[in-house]
C-alpha cells in the first residue's frame, strides 16, 4: 500500500523537468533572442501609433459632440443629434466590413481576441474605429488597439525584411498588441495580464509568449507617457476619483457585493447574448443591417435624452468621460436618471456589439459604476464599495476574464481598500455567467485575405507549446 502511494511521484518529476528543459532550450536559440530584441524595438513605433490613434479619436469625439453643437448654437447636443452621426457610422462600418480585408476587426459581441494579427487588416481596423467610436458607438478602443498593435508589428517585420516564421508571427503579434493595449490602460502589467487570459496560455508557453509582450509593452508605455507630455495632447484616462476616501469595508459591503454581483452578472450576460443575436442578424445582410442597428443605437440615446433631459453623450459614447463625472459627483444623478442610463445604454451597447467595431471594456465599466450608485442606498452598502463591486461584476461578466477584470478595476479605482469586494464581485459574476445558458455560438469570421496570417499564428502557438 505504501509503495503504491509513493509510485506516481517519480513519474511526475521528469515531466516538469522536460518542460523546464524545453523552455531553457528555446531561450538559448538565437532566433528567439532576436524576437525579444525586435519586440523591444517595435514597442516604440507601435506606442507612437497608439498615441496618435487615441489622440485622434479623442479630438474627433470632442469636435463631434462639443465643438460642432456649440458652433450651431447648442450648449449640449440635442436629443436627435446621435441619429445622423450613428447613421454615418453604420454606413462607413458597413462599407469597411463588406469591402476591406479583415472586415474592420472582429465583432465585439464575441469578446476580445489575440493571435489573429494581420498587417492587411490595419487600414480597415483604423477606418472602422474612427467611424464607430467618435460618432457615438457605445464601445471602447481596446479591441481596435489589439488589432492595430499586432498588425503593425507584423508590418514592421515585413519592412525590415526579418524572417517570417509561424513562431515569430505569434510572438510579434502578441508583443505588438501588448504595446498598444498598455497605452489605453496606462499600465503595461494590465496589458500583459489581459493577453495571458485572452490567449489562454500556461506553463512554459506562458513565459515564451509573455517575455516579448512585457518587453514591448514596457518600452511602449515609457514612450507613450513621454510623448503625451511633450505634445500636450489628451488621449483620455481610464481612472476615477471619488470625492471622499474609501471607507472601511464592513459585513454589509461584503454581503451586498456578492448579491449585487450575481444580479448584475446575470443582466450583463443577457446583454452579451443579445449582442451575439444582433451579430447573427447583421451577418445575413451586413451593410443594410449594420446601418439599421447603428441608427437604433442612436435612437436609444435620443430617447434617453427625451426621458431624462440629460445629454445623449451619456449613452452614445464609450462612457469613459461620463464614468469620471459619475465618480466625482454620484449624488448629481437621480434614481430615474440612473435607471434610464443603465437601460438605454445597455440596449445601445448590445446593438453596437453586434454591428459596429470597438471594444467591450469601457461601456461595461460605466454600467457597473452606474448600477453600483443606483444600489448604494441599500442598508449597509456604501457608494464606493458598491461601485467597485459593480464594475468588477460587469467587466468579468462581459470579458469572461476574471483575473484581468480584478486587475483592471483595481487600477481604475486606485485604492487597495476595495480589493476584497472587487475580487468577490468578479468571481461571483464570472461563475454566474458560466452557469447560465451560453446563447449563440461564437462565430469568428475571418476573410480569405487573413487566413494565411491567422494560420501562421496558429501554427506558431502550436510550435511554442510543443
Task: Give the secondary structure arrangement, pairings included.
Elements (H helix, E strand, L loop, with lengths): L1 H5 L1 H21 L1 H42 L10 H18 L22 H11 L9 H18 L6 H20 L2 H12 L4 H28 L19 H33 L2 H23 L11 H9 L6 H21 L5 H15 L7 H17 L2 H12 L5 H17 L15 H15 L1
Helix pairs in contact: 2-9, 3-6, 3-7, 3-9, 4-5, 4-11, 5-6, 6-7, 7-8, 7-9, 7-18, 8-9, 8-16, 10-11, 10-13, 10-15, 10-17, 11-13, 12-14, 13-14, 14-15, 15-16, 15-17, 16-17
State the main characteristics:
466 residues; mainly alpha; Clc chloride channel; 2 domains; globular; disordered C terminus
Mind explaining what this structure looks like?
The chain has 466 residues and is mainly alpha-helical. The protein has two domains: 28-236 and 446-465, Orthogonal Bundle (Clc chloride channel); 251-435, Clc chloride channel, CATH 1.10.3080.10. The chain is 72% helix and 0% strand. It is built from 18 helices and no strands. It has helices spanning 2-6, 8-28, 30-71, 82-99, 122-132, 142-159, 166-185, 188-199, 204-231, 251-283, 286-308, 320-328, 335-355, 361-375, 383-399, 402-413, 419-435, 451-465. Helix 4 (82-99) packs antiparallel against helix 11. The protein is globular and about 60 Å long. It starts with a helix and ends with a helix. Mean pLDDT is 83; it is low at 446-466.
Query: What's the shape?
Result: globular
Per CATH, the architecture of the largest domain is: Orthogonal Bundle
Tell me, rounded to a whole number, the average pLDDT. Answer: 83
Distance separating the two termini = 36 Å
Rg over CA atoms: 22 Å
Quick one: biggest sheet?
none
Order of helices and strands: HHHHHHHHHHHHHHHHHH
**Could you tell me the number of beta strands?**
0
Look at the structure and give the CATH class of the largest domain: Mainly Alpha
